[in-house]
């Protein structure tokens, strides 16, 4: 008589590559927001990067708590892709605009720190 084989549960969101990419995006956006605040950059730079931090955090909470499976009225992967495209465009514009004027080193660091986010999102 054969013993039943254990069925391995799929790893949750916290152990996935998707989680790693979202946490990396969150960390980079938090760092750039801090740089913009320290540099006293124009308010749109701070607001856009802080708003993106909030959105990324909400997506992480959504996937970690498995609310995407509870709220089936929305197609969450499509929202995630649209968010990635809008983030790429807005953060690219903010990072380029932060690099154009010779304002301060912190503002330049904030603009440069956003550039890897766009590359990660484009390659995804």
How does this structure look, described?
- The protein is mainly α and 124 residues long.
- It has 5 helices and no strands.
- The protein has helices spanning 17-38, 43-64, 67-70, 76-99, 105-123.
- Helix 1 runs antiparallel to helix 2 (43-64), helix 2 runs antiparallel to helix 4 (76-99) and helix 4 (76-99) runs antiparallel to helix 5 (105-123).
- The termini are far apart.
- The mean pLDDT is 79.
Short description:
This protein has 124 residues and is mainly alpha-helical.
List the helices and strands and how they pair.
Layout: H1 17-38, H2 43-64, H3 67-70, H4 76-99, H5 105-123
Tally of contiguous helical segments: 5
Structural class: mainly alpha
Helix content: over 70%
Give the H and E element order. HHHHH
N-end to C-end Cα span: 47 Å
Low-confidence segments: none
Q: Name the overall outline.
A: elongated
What number is the mean pLDDT?
79
Spell out the key features of this protein:
124 residues; 73% helix; elongated
